Structure formats: structure tokens, C-alpha cells
Amino acid sequence: MKPQRIDLRGADGVDDVAKRVLETRLSEVRALAGQLESRERRGLHHFRIACKRLRYALERFEALDSSFALAADRLARLQDELGEAHDRDVLLAILPPAMGQTERRLKGEREACVDRGIMLWSELRGLMQAIDSHHF
Amino acid sequence: MKWLAKTIRSERRALERARRRFVREPSEKLLHDVRTTGRRLRSLLEDIAGIAPRRDLLKRVKRAAAATDAARDATIVLRLLESNVTSSERELAQPLLDRLHEEERAAMRDASRRLRRARFGP
Lengths: 136, 122
Hints:
Shape of chain A: elongated
Low-confidence stretches of chain B: none
Strand content of chain A: under 5%
Radius of gyration of chain B: 17 Å
CATH architecture of chain A: Up-down Bundle
Shape of chain B: elongated
Mean pLDDT of chain B: 94
Distance between the termini of chain A: 25 Å
Helix content of chain B: over 70%
Strand content of chain B: under 5%
Number of domains of chain B: 1
Order of helices and strands of chain B: HHHH
Oligomer: heterodimer
Number of domains of chain A: 1
Distance between the termini of chain B: 17 Å
CATH class of chain A: Mainly Alpha
Structural class of chain B: mainly alpha
Number of helices of chain A: 5
Low-confidence stretches of chain A: none
Number of strands of chain A: 0
């Protein structure tokens, strides 16, 4: 999914650029967060990519606000969990049908990764709320 | 904006350094470095496209990412299969493991060849 283009015309310094970038990337993440509940491969992938964009933006501007670093760290962990789930999806798609035990193991791990991702997201919602109310 | 020019320069240097190291000695770790520094630069360029468009550079960064996709996929899936296959299904998995080993080698060579020509330094 393509990132939204950010209107930076007339931006007044780094604070203003940070505000506009983070606002846009936060809204992209929120718009895709429902994909976590669906647990479906493609939706999770789009959500993970949106998280990645937000994380990089937070890291880039973390000198402006110490709370950005914590949110970026949690996003990195969420991304890792969803990345692990995605890798299992890729392997499951090419696994020979006769390998039932390995398939069950991979599916179990995949679901556990998504569960941990859901838990991390609920923690992140609070952190994002704080960033939101402080900056936007 | 000074900070912006400085950030772009520093992220370009990071990607160029990672590219050179990978081309010199292709490995899973150095491939990972190329991909992460590339993603950071790409994300920055996309974020600031509204005030400082760098279309040509963005295109090159995307191309570099695409050049490493196959190698990354083969490596990750191979490691995952090796660590998850149950002992009773090892034999069934062997043809796939062999194929993935081959794909990994070929994809690494291809990524290295394609990245040899790329340049990202400021």
C-alpha cells in the first residue's frame, strides 16, 4: 500500500514537519489497525508496513520528544511479531501437503505471533493517544 | 532546511556503506543491513517528498530493495524450515530444503551483481 503524500507546503521548521509527518503516519496506522483482528495475511502485511513508516518517522524526530522513542520501540516489537507471522505464511504456502506436523507447528507459532502483536498494539494505543493529545 | 539536507546525506551514506560491504562480501547479515538502511532512506524520501522531492534517488532505492527481496525470502524461509521441521518429516522436507539452498545461493549472487552497479552516496 502506497504511503499517503504529506502536504509540507509552508512548513515552518522541523517541529512543523514532524507534526505533519507523524499526524499522517499515525492516521495510516490507525486506519489499518482493524486488520489485526481479521488476522488475514495481506491485511496484516499492510498494517505492518504502515507501522514501519510510523516507527521510522518517530525515530527520526525522537530528539523532539522523549515519548517518541518508547513508541518507536514498541512499534519495532509489534513489527517483529507480525514479520515472524508473515515469514510463517510464506513458508506455509510452499510446504509440501504431506508435512502435517510441521504445518500445525508453524500455524500455531503464527497465531501466537499475531496474539502477541495484538497485545503490543493495545499498549501502543495508549502511547499514541498521549502523542496525539500532546502534539496535534 | 539544513537539518533535512543533513539527514538525507547521512542516510544516503549509511546505505552506500552497507551496499559496499555487502558487494565485497555477500552474507545474510550484510544483506539485512542493506535492506534496513534502504528502508530508512526510502521512508525519509517518501515523508519529505512534498518539500524536497528526490524522485531519481527514490527510484534507485526501491530498485535496490527489489534486488534483495528474493535473497531475503529464500534465506528466511530456509532458516525457518530448518528450525521447524519435525524429525519424522525431515525426509519429506529434504527436496524443499535443497531447492531453497539453491535459490538462496542464486538470489545472493543476483543481489550482489545488481547492487554492484548501484550508487547512493551524496
